[in-house]
TrEMBL record:
GO terms for molecular function: ribosomal large subunit binding; rRNA binding; tRNA binding. It comes from the Bacteria. Key component of the ribosome quality control system (RQC), a ribosome-associated complex that mediates the extraction of incompletely synthesized nascent chains from stalled ribosomes and their subsequent degradation. RqcH recruits Ala-charged tRNA, and with RqcP directs the elongation of stalled nascent chains on 50S ribosomal subunits, leading to non-templated C-terminal alanine extensions (Ala tail). The Ala tail promotes nascent chain degradation. RqcP is associated with the translocation-like movement of the peptidyl-tRNA from the A-site into the P-site. Associates with stalled 50S ribosomal subunits. Binds to RqcH, 23S rRNA and the P-site tRNA. Does not require RqcH for association with 50S subunits. Keywords: Protein biosynthesis, RNA-binding, rRNA-binding, tRNA-binding. Residues 1-63 form the RNA-binding S4 domain. One of its GO terms (biological process) is rescue of stalled ribosome. It comes from Limosilactobacillus agrestis. Pfam families: S4. InterPro entries: RqcP, S4_RNA-bd, S4_RNA-bd_sf. This is RQC P-site tRNA stabilizing factor. CDD domains: S4. The keyword RNA-binding applies. Belongs to the RqcP family.
Length: 90
């Protein structure tokens, strides 16, 4: 599945267009490698996503084409979540 679609379906990012923009800015790493919105993700991959002063690392547990909101959190698990004290530390 494409990275931008996974982020939308799993509800990590609410809109696919926003997921595409963030990925194409280089703010998402797949297994430590820079990625684009069209990059493919698979079960077991680790995503590192930079949101402003928050950096979140998630591991993909399962991939489905569509999901209900209550089941979306089963698609991934949060491995790490850190916050920068200020934007200067980014």
């Amino acid at each position: 599945m494409r990275l931008d679609k996974f982020l939308k379906v799993s509800r990590i990012i609410k809109r696919r267009s926003v997921a595409k923009e963030i990925a194409d800015q280089g703010r998402i790493l797949i297994n430590g490698q820079p990625s684009k919105s069209s990059s493919r993700v698979a079960v077991g991959d680790t995503l590192t996503i930079k949101f402003g002063n928050k950096t979140e690392t998630v591991k993909i547990n399962r991939i489905v084409e569509t999901t209900k909101k209550s089941e979306a959190e089963d698609m991934y698990e949060i491995v790490d979540e850190t916050y920068a004290e200020s934007f200067d530390q980014l």
